[in-house]
Design a protein that fits this description.
By secondary structure, this protein is of the alpha/beta class. The protein is built from 9 helices and 19 strands. The N and C termini lie far apart (about 80 Å). About 50% of the residues are buried. It catalyses: L-glutamine + H2O = L-glutamate + NH4(+).
């Protein structure tokens, strides 16, 4: 039989609800299991691929056309791709960008990440919005039956799993990379004192470190299990608790670390760090129906009434009703009213449920880094 001049369906996405989606594969081959979530960003797929907060998840892009800008050396947000797989509607057959060094398919294959295309992403997104995030199995192995893949999806769960330990650094290190001019779009931090910041790596993104450095911070990044006592010995001006993947209730050791640091030094929590702060303050977290994933989520800053378009990536949220007196909800997600930021002035605490560094954008919330600087500055002056 003559070979067809086009690729035929050679992969399946099997969801735990029993639905089977035929697709074409690109990137790596094999069989993987993960939680399927959808991302509404129009651009920035390379940053999404290298965001450690997606560990254990298949990311479905709602934007139908992916791959046209290829990939480059500058946009990676961590040392590797941590997500379980990529699901898209249309894979670009050409790349057109002056920074492109290779195609998306080659990039994924080199990093052993599976991808599928020519699948109805709109229909899957509607299903996820209606039923919530679903466990799925991606497979290119024709020897595996549909029933076998379905059983795999129903026997795996992401809830209660410590995903942070698989993405954190192995040992402390100093962030020494200079912030290039294209990343240093806000010069408010120049000509100020240098602030020593300890950043807990729960899955930290490089652009968080770049933005802190731009505001005049000298940063030491430490593993998720780094003892609070060792952090305090370094006498930092502030501590950052970073973003990260999974269930905050699955990492009680991190909550205990946060508790030991609170009140001793100003702290800033981002995403997972925000959730851990919520628990450390006595609050509760819960799993959202389908989470927030995208670069276009509106958030209201309750302190000044300003609406910020934000970049978000989380499946868990803090229940504001469970927080003790004195903890202030500073930001609210306007799509569903969920808590998007906290402050506790008595203990010099601030946190955001979303990404103020927002690589590749938008940058409406970059002022949060300046607020962290001001929090450290006022604490030093009061000492």
């Amino acid at each position: 039989m003559a070979e067809r001049p086009w690729k035929v369906a050679d992969a399946r996405l099997v969801l735990e609800d029993g639905s089977i989606w035929r697709a074409k594969s690109f990137g790596a081959s094999g069989t993987r299991v993960g939680e399927v979530v959808f991302n509404t960003s129009l651009t920035g797929y390379q940053e999404i691929l290298t965001d450690p907060s997606y560990a254990g998840q298949f990311v479905l892009m709602t934007n139908p056309h992916i791959g046209n800008t290829g990939v480059n050396f500058d946009d990676d947000e961590s040392r590797q791709c941590f997500l379980a797989g990529l699901v898209i509607r249309s894979l670009s057959i050409i790349t057109s960008n002056w920074r492109c060094v290779e195609t998306l398919g080659d990039y994924l294959a080199e990093r052993n990440v599976m991808g599928i295309y020519d699948v109805d992403t709109r229909a899957i997104t509607r299903r996820l919005r209606q039923d919530g995030s679903l466990i799925g199995v991606l497979s290119t192995e024709q020897s595996r039956s549909d029933d076998e893949l379905l059983e795999m999806s129903r026997s795996w769960d992401i809830v209660g799993i410590d995903l942070i330990s698989g993405v954190t650094c192995n040992a402390p290190y100093e962030w020494v990379d200079e912030t290039k001019s294209e990343w240093d779009f806000n010069s408010d931090g120049r000509d100020r004192d240098t602030y020593r910041v300890i950043a807990y790596d729960f899955g930290i993104k490089h652009n968080i470190l770049r933005r802190l450095a731009s505001y005049g911070c000298k940063i030491t990044v430490v593993p998720s299990t780094w003892p609070a006592a060792e952090t305090l010995k370094l006498k930092p001006d502030g501590v950052l608790f970073s973003n990260g993947p999974g269930d905050p209730s699955a990492v009680p050791y991190a909550v205990e670390t946060v508790k030991e640091i609170l009140g001793k030094v100003p702290v800033f929590g981002i995403c997972m760090g925000h959730q851990l702060l919520g628990q450390a303050l006595g609050g509760k977290t819960f799993k959202m129906k389908f989470g927030h994933h995208g670069g276009n989520h509106p958030v209201r800053n309750l302190r000044n009434g300003r609406v910020e378009i934000s970049a978000q990536n989380h499946n868990y949220a803090v229940d504001p009703a469970s927080l003790p007196e004195g903890v202030e909800v500073t930001h609210v997600n306007l799509n569903d009213g969920s808590c998007a930021g906290l402050a506790y002035p008595a203990l010099s605490i601030m946190s955001l449920q979303y990404h103020p560094e927002a690589s590749p954008g938008p940058h409406d919330s970059d002022c949060a880094f300046r607020e962290f600087i001001e929090l450290m500055e006022s604490t030093k002056q009061a000492a």
